[in-house]
Amino acid sequence: MDRLFGIVAFAAFAAFLAIIVLRVPEPDLIIVFAVVLLMVAWDFWLALRPRRHHGRDRRRGP
């Protein structure tokens, strides 16, 4: 269920950015939105991929 909500949220955010880019076609704005969309996609990928634990918690220090 989390993946479904994540995909819907990502699609809605991408559609929102696409509407703004189509309304205001400035090259620098398009670049900023592309970078932001890539960062959101990367965060989405990291958050929803299967977790693999190898005996220690990766969020904590050594």
TrEMBL record:
<keyword id="KW-0472">Membrane</keyword>
<feature type="transmembrane region" description="Helical">
    <location>
        <begin position="30"/>
        <end position="48"/>
    </location>
</feature>
<protein>
    <submittedName>
        <fullName>Putative membrane protein YfcA</fullName>
    </submittedName>
</protein>
<keyword id="KW-0812">Transmembrane</keyword>
<keyword id="KW-1133">Transmembrane helix</keyword>
<feature type="transmembrane region" description="Helical">
    <location>
        <begin position="7"/>
        <end position="24"/>
    </location>
</feature>
